[in-house]
Amino acid sequence: MNNLIFVFFYSVLHFSGFTIFTKFLKSSKIELQEKSKLYSNFYPLISLFFIGNLNLILNFFSPLKKVAIFVVAFFLFLAVYGLIISFKNKYIKDSFINLFLFPFLISFSSYGIKFHYDSGAYHLNYQNWIYENKISLGVANLNPFYSYGSLQEYIFSNLSYFNLNLLFFFVELTFFTVFFVWIFQYINDKNNDFLQRSALFIAIFLFLDNFGYMGGANGSIQIQMVGKTDTAVAIIWVLISMLIINDLLKKNSNQNQFFLILTLGLFAFQLKSNAAPLIFLILFYVFKFRKTFSFVNFQNIMLLILLNLFLVKNFLVSGCVLYPLSFTCFKKVSWLNFDHIYESSYITLRDNRRLQFGENFIQSLVDLLNHSYNTQIYTNFLLSLILIFIFKKIFYKTKNRNTQLKITYLIFILINFILFFFTVPAFRNGYGLFLSSVILFTIDELELKKKLGFLFNKYTYLLLTLFTIILFPRFFMYSEAKNNNFSYVDFEIGIAKYEKINEGFTVPIGNNQCWYKENCLLKTKYNNNILIEEKLGYTIISSSK
To answer: Which of 44, 68, 473, 516 is the most buried (most CB within 10 A)?
Structure first.
């Protein structure tokens, strides 16, 4: 039953995204049909992007619980309208794999899933706060990790209306489904050599994730516990990289492609700020096509407004435009407790064993490799790249070298690896970087060797994609589905005990997980005193030692 519910959920996002994207661009019928072929994979992400940003805007004026049902009804209307238009114009023929089979198979991972620790620590409680209150200045004084304020919180908060935790996970599964549909579509596309090769090599990298040193895991995207955005950002990162490199190789792009890339880039940044280095690749793309694009138009202005609203939200929540970068904090605003913010960012950097310059470099490298599963993952990552290189040498010959573009993209990858290892090198933060490294092998123009070309056909590609998807959910998830007779199964929030402190606040006992507890705070030595005041109908929260 979970599978069928997700198929419905995904279809709603697909058709509402279809309506938004096509009507927003005001396409003619001929253009619409062509764009449906090119961009249909992205419709669910377009829906999530607009749901999140609509809720963000509404939260400036209202608690989300007062508008949740209207937002849901609006997107259901868009989905029904999109479905009618799609049937009328025959845009959904041959959609069994895209809209049913892949979502159905991937959603087996919903059995046995549970919340990530950080969901209880700050994600769910922040979602509850914006659900119950309009935007509050300085709410990060209750928990410094509210400063992250991902757009995902605004998507999830809207779904809180239904009291079904499974819907949160379905948002995350949407990114996986979009990605696999994209891979399958282009792995069979004989009309676009670069996208076909990239899809194939990425599918091989995903498949190799299941094998290797200590059982596998090569840094590829994987199903995370509910609440984290790392995989979603990684998928957008790879898709943007493929779209940009493809246009650069063709030496051709258009305004709609530009808008799509900017939208996806903004979405990734709003989900998690570590997507910001994508700006280097996007700026290179903009420079190359600066004479092709119109920069001042309604669509781009709208994206700029959404970006600025997101940054304003960050400032109002924490006093910092871009947490945890201290130079973006405004120390003179009353709701900024800089020590409170600084402590949390220090803990994040310390606990993830980043590399350090100077005399401590060697020791920091040893600490990094010995931390968590890093040695296993980095070993398998290198082994996977070696195997893909060997695969390329055996089955392909190089027709034309695109050296300049390959060097440019290599520099982009290396810069990001340096940023990754010297900031917060938790391997989940590098999913997109690891996977997009595979694209380096596909930038040259390649041709299958004739003697071995018969091995590559639509059936081979379908089997490779299906095997990768089937192996994606863990085996215990299939067991959970079978044990529950494939019926509807939700998962629950954690249980915690709380202690009341002064001024009507509570703190969790034994850990820092508040879950959905109202007025629960993460206690630090810098927020012993909480001051709450009302001005012009808005709550202002400040704190001190």
So the answer is: 44
